[in-house]
Amino acid sequence: MDVENKYDDSRMRGFRPSFRALTLIIVVIWIGVAALYALLKPISNGCIMTYMYPTYIPISTTGGETSAKYGLYLYHEGWRKIDFQEHLKKLSGVPVLFIPGNGGSYKQVRSVAAESDRAFQGGPLEHTFYQETYLTPEEGGADMDIASFQLPNRYSYRLDWFAVDLEGEHSAMDGRILEEHTEYVVYAIHRILDQYKESRDVREREGAAGTGSLPKSVILVGHSMGGFVARAATIHPRLRKSAVETILTLSSPHQFPPVALQPSLGCYYESINEEWRKGYEVQTSRTGRYVSDPVLSHVVVVSISGGYNDYQVRSKLETLDGIVPPTHGFMISSTGMKNVWLSMEHQAILWCNQLVGQVSHTLLSLIDSRTGQPFTDTRQRLAIFSRLLRSGIPQSFNWKMQSQSSWSTNVVKDVKNPSGSQLHTLSGCPSNVHWNDDVLERDLYIQTTTVTILAMDGRRRWLDIRKLGSNGKSHFIFVTNLAPCSGVRLHLWAEKGTPNSDLPASKKKVLEVTSKMVQIPAGPAPRQIEPGSQTEQPPPSAVFQLRPEEMNGFRFLTISVAPRLTVSGQPPPANSMAVGQFFNPEEGNTELSPKSMLLAAYSHKDIFLKEDHPLVFNLSFATSLGLLPVTLSLKTAGCGIKNSGLPGEEADDAENSRLCKLRCFPPVALAWDPTSGLHVFPNLQSETIVVDSSPVLWGSTTLEKTTVLLLVDPHCSYQTNIAISLSGAASRFLLLYGSQMVGFSIAVIFFALMRQAHTRPIPSILEVMESNLRIPFPFLALSIVPILISLFLSYLISQALPPFMSFTVISVICYLFANGFVILLILVSQLVFYVAAYLHVFIKRRWQLWEGNFCFSFLQWFINLCSGFLSLKVIGVLRANPLYVPVSAAITLSTFVHPALGLLILLLSHALCCHDALCNSLIASFRTHARRMELSDHKAQGNYRSQQFASKPGSPSKENSSSYGQTQEDIFHYRHGLLVLHLLGALMFVPSLISWLQRIGMHQSFPRFVDSSLCICLILHGIFSSEPLFDYSFSFPRVLGQKVRLNFIYLLAGLCSFISALASTPYKAFYAIGAVGAISFALSISPRWTGAPRLGRRRYSLKR
Which Pfam family, an example, fits this chain (predicted)? Predict the structure, then answer.
């Protein structure tokens, strides 16, 4: 009786989760719901739509199957109907090939192509005199002659936009599709270059004079996976030499696939990136002698990221670090792009007018007006990208550690090139910006550290650097909405009587520093509260900063404001503002530790800024806002307006806020992140500050702190509130580490199978997972040891170590989340099996009650008639070897059709076996229960002793029934664990299966060998490891004096899967699954090869 109760209790424990597991499930569900809530909220990106009149001209293609399956088009902008052949004859521009991404269309080229046509006709952007960005010393800027760097004031050649039609295939899901797209892009590049030659030949035959030279290269612009295809095509062995020299990618993953699950896709990525790394190395012989320059020395790559609103591809995947050296490429976020300043969704980056307009002008500026081709010098092309895409704001901010740029790089002037066209180089404000000198005689001498300008009064304000910059206030900052040169000019003056020899080198007695003003995005224009009343303070559009070393040797700083009515013919702003201040950067620094940030999730952190505070307030967050976004609110508490003391005036916050808007400019937040760069949040009132960073991954060299710089009016006091956005944190967590969870989940299952393999009777998969969560052991051992191994591997390969504490904490959190997800998956699948088994047993018992029915007799006769089919010899062989059918079907489908279909057969085999074992276990349990009830009735009637040994013919004894039920339950638990493991493996191929289903009816190719072979190994593991009572402890290489058992193999596989997840390559966890399958297969057939006797198995039978 006690044995039977214990057997029933074990079944209930296998189905009832513990409090620890239930807590994990609740946390996983909450994170999933919160993330969905944050991700499904509508996004306001501020983009302007781009309008066009598209026409797509097909380009005839002749080639193999790939060229026949895909297509090539030439874009034409205009509403008039044109003759395609006549238009192709006039082809004489610079070829640009657009490559769509995952599921994209060739028609997505229309926005950037239409904007390029308008940019060519309208000419370059209006020149401003803000500080511009040039190449850093790491990018080769130290050796570049900036004086020779010139941008034309008109475009001489237009861009001819081509686009490849890749049938909307999902290239992000399958490596084979990605390879086919690469091959067709190579063909399309050659076809485009040949088309220019054909067009020129036609013009010459018709007597038209040829102009310019034929293009030798094609500019590639790729969106999403199209950017990676562009890089893969560049190193393709069949590509013509120097056919690609410039690549621009939009939201393209370069480091890893966005869904890194398919092994062949990950291998293809690794091979392409490795070829690119070697492509920038100098070619040498085996003896080390120089052979040739790097193969890719002429190729420039620029990657544009969509920022934190791009949920499909994170900025960490879009970086070129370790692939392209800084001298040949860089990555920039759209949030820090000049004239853009916006984060946008994955598809919006194709039509956002601010971005495609800036990209169009950048590509047009790459054309050399003398040759009609892109500049051959890689540094010049990279410098053009840097100057037209980057803003003057540094990508990383630190007041004391900013590198001091030379004075010759901070000013602009106009010169003439040899052809007579006007070009922009570096000097002071140009001479055509003329002011009325008489007005500037009215000088003002500022006596306070803060200077305010409320109108364009034409006055010059003098600030004594020695006097106002004392007491540690050695830095000067100035914010304004006035344009440099035309609205405001700044100069440094040496003290009268100071000889030039006493000044620092390359400095004059009067030095104009106006061009050090950096443009920032301005918020909405100020509104007028009432007709005829004063307008609100306008937002700043520029910031100017001087460090102590830049003011060294000078006595005065002057701020000259232009007269309102003579601003070089330009309309003045509706309202003018400017605020400058000498300040101490240490006074405005506030650091938030990880602990304070976590506490802010429950209780908001308040910071009060009194009046006359520093204009610059620096917030340093120890944990990246890419992981813990914060909601930053600034509420104006006061602005120097005193209450009269009358009743009703004491608590009128709305009126006080309205008056303060007339006095104080709107706050601006500038966030710097090591990965995604600059993010600007103008008109900050209440905003969720988030950056697109991927902190504490394996390979991260810094803690990736986020620095937020607040520009706030010193005349006003502010109540600052900082709170953690929980829904934003949940969504960022899943976006950053979602794909890695697959690797962690596989490791969790392997650790559970490890414990199952050496425990008898076999516990349920849920029980062993709960036991693995016990603290301190084995949880700490299973979660910390792989992390230590990964750090040791980093040390061995001389890779920079990530921050230990944050790396460990995040990795353990991911491991816990994976445990919760797997437990939830186990509970759901187990519930399905129990419901199906109870229904099956119920129907079977009802069936037995219908045995005397006429309908049942007829059905029994029909079944007996059909059973003759089962007497066939082939059917007999299959019944004697039931594994032949699923094994052969699964392997055939995995090899010749698709691996996911073979894994589906394996999952069905597992499911049927689990269902059969559970049904047998329930039937045995019911019979035992019925036997117990029968014995109880006999005992109550006084006949217990005489009947306890009596049994019905054919019925099992109590001991045999319980033993049989336990055996069936062991089989169910073991096969259930294998089912969950192989289900995760099959889910890794679901994206590839979706792309395969899309191509049904088209040209199909066999699966990649690496995918098929790994899936076959997984199938072998599922088939030959399906008997839980088989002992694997026979002869095998010994380790530390012990025989290697199956549980040790599972442990090694779990460690490998864990480490692959840490390395952001979860597809490598499939290698561990394949290795376990191969070893299991080898252990199963080794007794037949060696002639060793197979160990016995415990089998239990139940007579019926």
Answer: PGAP1
CB 254, CB 319: distance < 8 Å: yes
Q: Does position 831 have pLDDT exceeding 60, yes or no?
A: yes
Residue 338 CA to chain centroid, in angstroms? Answer: 22
Residue 416 has pLDDT above 50, yes or no: no
8 A C-beta contact, residue 838 and residue 922: yes
| 8-state DSSP, 569 | T
Q: Scanning the structure block, which residue is given the tokens 């990555």?
A: 331
Q: How many CB atoms lie within 10 A of CB 53?
A: 12
SS3 string of 985-1038? Answer: HHHCCHHHHHHHHHCCCCCCCCCCHHHHHHHHHHHHHHHHCCCCCCCCCCCCCC
At residue 956, the pLDDT reads 47
In whole angstroms, what separates CA 952 from the centre of its chain? 68
In degrees and rounded to multiples of 5, residue 92 shows phi and psi of -150, 15
Q: Please indicate, yes or no, whether the overall pTM of this predicted structure exceeds 0.90.
A: no
Structure tokens at 601: 């999730």
Enter the tokens of residue 282.
């100098």
pLDDT class of 1101 with cuts at 50, 70, 90: very low
Residues 1035 and 834: their CA atoms lie apart, in Å, by: 39
Decide the pairing of beta strands 706-711 and 616-621: antiparallel
Beta bridge partners of 99: 222
Provide the terminal-to-terminal Cα distance of the chain, rounded to the nearest Å: 23
C-beta of residue 436 within 8 angstroms of C-beta of residue 458: yes
For residue 715, the cross-strand partners are none
Residue 286, token pair as written in the block: 């085996």
What are the Cα distances from residue 912, in Å, to 408, 497, 907, 919, 1098?
Answer: 78, 98, 9, 10, 22
Cβ-contact 773, 779 below 8 angstroms: yes
Chain segment 799-822, per-residue pLDDT in tens = 878 888 888 988 999 999 999 999
For residue 932, what are its two tokens?
A: 């117990």
Compute the radius of gyration of the chain from its Cα atoms: 37
* CB 377, CB 368: distance < 8 Å: no
**Any alpha helices (H) in 897-957, and if so which ranges?**
899-940, 944-947
Minimum mean pLDDT among 153-167, 867-881, 929-943: which range? 867-881
CB 733 within 8 A of CB 623: no
CA distance 257 to 742: 14
Beta strand pairing status for 246-250 and 219-223? parallel
Answer for the pair 646, 761: CB distance below 8 angstroms, yes or no: no
Confidence category of residue 370, pLDDT binned at 50, 70, 90 = confident
Type of residue numbered 537: Q
Which residue, 650, 601, 632, is CA-closest to 718?
632
The dihedral of CA 900, 904, 905, 909: what is its sign? positive
pLDDT for 28: 94
Higher pLDDT, 827 or 564: 827
Residue 933 contacts residue 1023 (beta carbons within 8 Å)? no
